[in-house]
Amino acid sequence: MSSQQRAERSADYPLECDHCHYPIPGDPQETDDGQFCSTACLEADGDDDAVPDPNAYKRIVTGIEPIDSLIPNGVPADSFVAVSGEAGTRRSELLTELVWRGIERGEPAVLVTATTPPTAVLERFFENGWNVLPALEDDRLRLVDCFTHRLADRDAFRERRGEWIEFVGEAAADAIVPIEDPADIEPILRECNAALDDLEMTETGLVAIDSLGELARGLETDHIHEFVAETRATVCKARYVPIVAGWPAGDEGATMDESVFDGIVDLRLADHLEPETRLRQLGVRKLTGARYLPQWITYEYEPARGLFASVVDSATGRASNGSPTPRGAQQRR
């Protein structure tokens, strides 16, 4: 290392390894091709497959105001995050928007539905003015259907669909992966991983599950913990693809050791702030490997806009529209 490099180097601006892109804690191993933190990186640098800058895929900005304002440096992409909320907190709308914001960024998405038919899931996007037909056509959105095969009469369900829902079903036919036996985790795990392979989802994209509570109720035995542990390992940790899953608050659904989650986002109704107004609030209970602010944010929802932070007047307790600007993180590309 040259004397000029040593002079310029400081704790705030350390040298970066030219292979792994992480700071070099000691003196670098230097060659004509660059400087490296270790022999492993020096030897691997000659391979054809270059390691991408970890800042490009290891953290993401969700594009949702209340979440991004609480997690200013981005969500670790290897996270399995549970969104816990009671009825009325718009948990399903949040999961829908997370998928849409990813599609807007040009990333693929897999949505596992256990609460409603795939066509009804797609209708949530359309109700917000979010047209997912191009994403379905371009094979950027896949729906793993853990609901339809629980219906007692699936043929009658299809025959009674209206023209619009029938059109949506036909347009999305190639993007829907039916699970023949949603009472067993093996076909769900298999088809989820197959969908990720088809969409080439490694270091890009998002998986949303709506919801773990409903999925747990459909299983023959309490295998939901095994499902979370398996998908967390094979999807989040191996591929750097985050999973965001709905999880019922309190006594609404199945119980599970919450230590299996990397992160938990809580949604609540805060009636105590204004007795005549049902304020909704969002807070981050935990998120491994990330800085997050220890506070509640009041939020509202509008079609097209999605979830947005609102400001509560301290004198009246009433909420008004607000638009805090998240900062500090760059969107994953």
Automatic annotation (TrEMBL):
<keyword id="KW-0067">ATP-binding</keyword>
<protein>
    <submittedName>
        <fullName>Recombinase RecA</fullName>
    </submittedName>
</protein>
<dbReference type="InterPro" id="IPR014774">
    <property type="entry name" value="KaiC-like_dom"/>
</dbReference>
<feature type="domain" description="KaiC-like">
    <location>
        <begin position="62"/>
        <end position="300"/>
    </location>
</feature>
<dbReference type="Pfam" id="PF06745">
    <property type="entry name" value="ATPase"/>
</dbReference>
<keyword id="KW-0547">Nucleotide-binding</keyword>
<dbReference type="InterPro" id="IPR027417">
    <property type="entry name" value="P-loop_NTPase"/>
</dbReference>
<dbReference type="GO" id="GO:0005524">
    <property type="term" value="F:ATP binding"/>
</dbReference>
